[in-house]
Design goal:
7 strands; 88 residues; globular; mainly beta
């Protein structure tokens, strides 16, 4: 599985902002669900498929989060950025 991944400690109420040159899936998962995602198993996360970017995904609770960007099976050379709007 090809995707972009970043691991970050975030607080409840922070916002993950992803900009990408292509429509894509943007997912925010905790560590256990990220491992399921990596294995191709069913997982729970926040976000989804975004046709219009930037994608903004709110952080539901404080902890370590995995931010993934994938092109839903497609391949392309993409330009992207992952930014965080911290509430404090």
């Amino acid at each position: 599985m090809d995707y972009i991944h970043e691991h970050e400690y975030l607080s409840e109420g922070d916002m993950v902002i992803v900009n990408c040159s292509h429509q894509c899936n943007v997912m925010l998962t905790d560590d256990a669900n990220y491992q399921r995602y990596r294995r191709g198993e069913q997982f729970e996360g926040y976000g989804g498929f975004f046709e219009i970017l930037p994608a903004e995904v709110p952080v539901p609770y404080t902890g370590y989060w995995n931010i993934t960007i994938d092109l839903a099976g497609g391949r392309a050379n993409i330009n992207y950025s992952i930014d965080f709007l911290k509430r404090n």
